[in-house]
Amino acid sequence: MTDASLRTPDAAADSGGDGTPLLELVDVGKHFAGITAITGASLALYPGRVMGLVGNNGAGKSTLVRIVSGVQQPDEGHVAWQGEPVRLRNPRQARGLGIDTVYQELALADDLDATANIFLNREISRGWGPFRVTSSKRMRREAAALFEKFAIQVPASGTEVRQMSGGQRQGVAIARALLGGSKVLLLDEPTAALGVEESGHVEDLVLRLRDHGVAILLVSHSVDQLLKLCDDLCVLRRGRMVGVYSRRDLTGSDVVSLIVGADAS
Ligand SMILES: Nc1ncnc2c1ncn2[C@@H]1O[C@H](COP(=O)(O)OP(=O)(O)OP(=O)(O)O)[C@@H](O)[C@H]1O
């Protein structure tokens, strides 16, 4: 691998200054044999802003995440990247642009340490041909620097991730996305399996990512968490987009009302 692939995001380095979103969904819809999973979904993600994605079970959140991450393609509307329409054919293409997803399962290699996990399939090596060797020292150094930059409290080397806490594992999975140069991070219920203290650590990390200019789409069922972390909230209900709201305009009971469909007033 080359040094150029070792990019971590930096504040507002990309679009956003001119008001163009990094990523936009325009009237996106997806149907399965007569079932509307989602329709009329429009939202924009900007560097250094957190968009919450909220809705009851079956509201269409996962479908929307799968569209943004390139797993599924919309059959209505379109996706735009830095103002240009784009067709995200698969997750690899999305990652190539800088869109990465951290799913609840995390998909870590349990028997490897944090450094090996974040460099998995993109190991740094030196030399050439039969003399090519992986540069463990340099990977450990770069992993440690990345953990320090985002204050991710994990042992960089020597501890298998299976021995780590849920919050630490979440940190490793997020670091892996950052190492690939993610500008847009989709976080799928990152604290669903965590206790109060560990959830707090992950929430702090989300805010640090935001402060470093990452655009975040956060799926969460916790209204408190959404109000704490998000700048904007996109509310879905039964496959339809209810709207995108500024967090400043919402109380917790407004959010609940929007989710279940009662009059928010
Ligand atoms: N591949 C599929 N085939 C058929 N129906 C699907 C498919 N994927 C999603 N759906 C349907 O689309 C609707 C939205 O599903 P989706 O998983 O996006 O909701 P969700 O908000 O993520 O729900 P949850 O919080 O339970 O994960 C549901 O009615 C679901 O059954």
Automatic annotation (TrEMBL):
Residues 23-263 form the ABC transporter domain. It comes from the Bacteria. InterPro entries: AAA+_ATPase, ABC_carbohydrate_import_ATPase, ABC_transporter-like_ATP-bd, P-loop_NTPase. This is Sugar ABC transporter ATP-binding protein. The keyword ATP-binding applies. The lineage of its organism: Bacteria, Bacillati, Actinomycetota, Actinomycetes, Micromonosporales. GO terms for molecular function: ATP binding; ATP hydrolysis activity. It comes from Actinocatenispora rupis. Keywords: ATP-binding, Nucleotide-binding.
